[in-house]
């Protein structure tokens, strides 16, 4: 596994990936950064990820085209796949997301899977809001969630 740190408008990011694709994107303060002793500092392995993130934050990219390889249960994978179908600049509720995966009663489980997303920003869990239109939980903090939604034009002050 290769890793690198990358500066962004929402703070430092820890990126990690291997030959299967991007495995994680953690935000500073969102979760403890734990580097595995078998990880190696990336040379050029994560350059494309950094370039696409920079384009996104500069308003020049609305969709990522990266190989992703998040580790999770089949249910989490299903939720994360559904998250990637939420268009740039749009939001949906946890209930909407549960409906999308044809598990309408699994709203809380969807919320838990959303919170366990290891590749935030790229897998856009920030686009999920409360059913009443309010910002709700985000591992990176509500301030970052609001900034991401404002960047996409989906949230106004």
Automatic annotation (TrEMBL):
Keywords: Cytoplasm, DNA damage, DNA repair, Methyltransferase, Transferase. Residues 74-154 form the Methylated-DNA-[protein]-cysteine S-methyltransferase DNA binding domain. The active site is at residue 125. It is an enzyme of class 2 (transferase). It is found in: Cytoplasm. One of its GO terms (biological process) is methylation. The keyword Methyltransferase applies. Its EC number is 2.1.1.63. It catalyses: a 4-O-methyl-thymidine in DNA + L-cysteinyl-[protein] = a thymidine in DNA + S-methyl-L-cysteinyl-[protein]; a 6-O-methyl-2'-deoxyguanosine in DNA + L-cysteinyl-[protein] = S-methyl-L-cysteinyl-[protein] + a 2'-deoxyguanosine in DNA. GO terms for cellular component: cytoplasm. Involved in the cellular defense against the biological effects of O6-methylguanine (O6-MeG) and O4-methylthymine (O4-MeT) in DNA. Repairs the methylated nucleobase in DNA by stoichiometrically transferring the methyl group to a cysteine residue in the enzyme. This is a suicide reaction: the enzyme is irreversibly inactivated. Belongs to the MGMT family. This is Methylated-DNA--protein-cysteine methyltransferase. It comes from Pseudomonas turukhanskensis. The lineage of its organism: Bacteria, Pseudomonadati, Pseudomonadota, Gammaproteobacteria, Pseudomonadales.
